[in-house]
Amino acid sequence: MEWKSDCRILAYYENPRHGLGTEVGGDYLQTILVSDYGCCLVTAGFGSLSAQVGIYTTDDCLFKNYDLTACSPQLSAATARLNQAQGNAAPEVSLPAFYALQSLMKRTPEGQRLVDLYWQHTAEVLRLLWANSLLREQAADILTTFQPGVAALLSGNAQSSPITQSMIDQLNGLWSALIEKASPALKTALEQERARFNNFEDFVNKDFSQWAGLLEIPAPTQPWIFISSATREGGRITVECNDIPGTDLTLWRSGNLSSWEQVLNPEVSRSTHTIRFIDPAPPAGSVFYQIRR
User: Fold this and answer.
1) Is CATH 2.40.128 correct for 1-80+225-293?
2) How far is CA 112 from CA 86, 118, 213, 217, 288, in A?
3) Phi and psi dihedrals of 237, rounded to 5?
4) How far apart are CA 291 and CA 29, in angstroms?
């Protein structure tokens, strides 16, 4: 890891650990801080890939609980679009949607356990995927197959998205392939989690709200929006989160967390389940952002 004092990126804050999340009218508002100073830049490498993430150093526990691969857009984006190296026109994977799902899972003890288990074995799973093109293609297909259901869950409309037998067959195919190549620890974890749900057959013909119930994670009744990245570059700040189709989202900023102003006329772009705001003229120094609906 490389430490630098001229970090220009960001800090993330999540409720309840950092106390900056608030409930307003049934909506959870997440606040992030983008700062020009007071943070360190950590460089992480995996094979030929490398990525950097800024960590705001005034909060010790933030750094201790942060996972580098979760924070590094370049490394994660390469992981998500696993089969593009094969020259295939793969549907776009929305990383913000899956980050939002992770933030939702953390709100229950069982969901937190599953998140911890995932990150415990992430490095090995990535090694297996990058070593095997077939596994990469299977993983990419799984992400794009389940992504509409995840988006429906995050929109508060999970009942509209059913889980089919073919989806579970696809998941079991990847699961079995990973088990064949896994270390004893990963193999045990994969086998145990699949056995809990009768080889995932318990999910068949369930919607994503029922799926969430089986996993003991929340199923929102209102849109769940999570800011997954924010960067300052060239005098502009880009804020990215999962998109909720048909919902008007607005970008707000504050210099002190007390008074807020809407960012007027931001640049807005939407892609598959992802929305990006660009604040073209942010104030100098530190600034807090929220996305509201």
Assistant:
1) no
2) 34, 10, 14, 9, 26
3) -120, 130
4) 7
Task: Give the tokens for residue 184.
Answer: 């004893």
Query: Does the structure show a pLDDT above 90 at 203?
Result: yes
**Amino acid identity for residue 224 in this structure:** W
CA atoms of 182 and 121, how far apart (whole Å): 10
Residue type, 125: V
**Mean residue pLDDT across the chain:** 77
**Residue ranges matching CATH 2.60.40 in the chain:** 1-80+225-293
Give the side-chain half-sphere CA count within 13 A for 75.
21
As a whole number of angstroms, the distance between CA 173 and CA 166 comes to 10
CB 241 within 8 A of CB 225: yes
Question: Taking residues 177-184, what's their average pLDDT?
Answer: 97
